[in-house]
Amino acid sequence: MTNSDYALDLIRDGQIVGLGTGRAATAFVQALGERVKSGFKVRGVATSEATAALARQLGIPLISLDEALAAGGIDVTIDGADEVDQRLDLVKGWGGALVREKIVAAASRRLVILVTPEKLVSAVGSRGRLPVEVIPFAAKLCERRLLDLGVKSNVRQADGNVFVTDNGNVILDAAVPPLAQPREFETALHDIPGVVGTGLFVGMANDVFVQCDGWVEAWHAIGDDRGGRCQRPEVRTLAASATRSAAAPSTVLRVVPDAARLSQAAAESFVEIAQAAIAERGRFTVALAGGSTPKRLYELLAEPPYRDRVDWSRVVIFFGDERCVPPDHADSNFRMAKEIMMIRLSSLSAQQVHRMQAERADLDVAADDYAALIAHAWHVSSWTGDPPAIDLVLLGMGADGHTASLFPNTAALDEQDRWVVANPVPQLGTFRVTLTAPLLNAARQVMFLVAGQDKAAALADVLEGSVDLQRLPSQLIRPTAGGLTWLVDQAAAARLKSVGPR
Length: 502
Description:
The chain is of the alpha/beta class. The chain is built from 13 helices and 24 strands. The protein folds into two domains: 3-221, Rossmann fold; 256-489, Rossmann fold.
């Protein structure tokens, strides 16, 4: 099954469909044309003259944007992208249709993006090219203003001539770095007189279908109301099209076929986040999870090719929680990670790994000492102040909805200040040492790894059920400024009404 097939499954008879531009969109339009030949009724709104010509050739009826708006708007737009980051922000426009693509997307209730894995990046701008459409009269002014922003640009050429868009404009290809704040950068670009539009699509995509080798990974943007439903906003104006902001970080649900592919996807994301952190800040900090699901991830990270793509000498490792056992005990999260991964990484020294000393008699002191260790790693004077931002926090989720050692109806769920606590867990008859929600939610990126049918009911409750933090502690995890990704297999996603099994 291809990502075009996934997109076709979303289209209903009688709908108005936005038709994107580019290789991936062309494959979808061709598939849609075959369905139309069999009697399927849709109307299309094309994002380029090339797509319009293809649609007419295939017999897909076309209407104008004005006609679509008069009929209530575009139901769904299917398009491609040149970059997709962890938050589902996009770079588009390498094919030159960025302005019409953005207008059609803004007029759509749902934007679905079809890509292949090489388009996935840790941050938009990572491939170093951002198209900016400008009116020809202002091209030189726009080029100079971009340079004032620290960005070099060139007027796009095609076959030895200046490339002209369907709107009669020209494109400046801006050599940008990875963008930590793409919305702010987009605003700065739009402040330049003569800029018509940019290839930044921030907070606009609802779904991304990634065509892998023989399978498809589905990414879905989850609404901020904790309802778990993919955002399907009403018709949006271009100025108000973005649904997420720095104050309302993105939550992304990624669904893969099985646990093995979950581990592969997690390893790829781990490497990309590590590379970006090291490039930007000189080191990569990560809090590892215990449990069965991360084991295969750790194995992959200790093997080529993933091992060789990370500078492990610049990695600093912490742990999300620990059982109250010695570090050589079979139940120790530290031991699991050490034996499966850390001892196999020759450039990772023992000084870079910080375990929780949960075997100590006084667990409160052990928790306080671990918080002090974290504070020292970020040169924070007081560990009771604002918690530092760990680059990546890996978490699992139990069938009861717990994460780390934040178990249902336990004292740690109410913690507002301390970063690390000893948490009594009566249902297990034991204590655990765990990071708390204030520290976990300060992370730059949190990634849940959830696999197996036994997690399906809890996952549906956490993502689509009502908010009940005492019963479902995983709902506590809502990063204040970072991203949140739920990477799950189809078995775990089986009860999600907004996704459904494939």
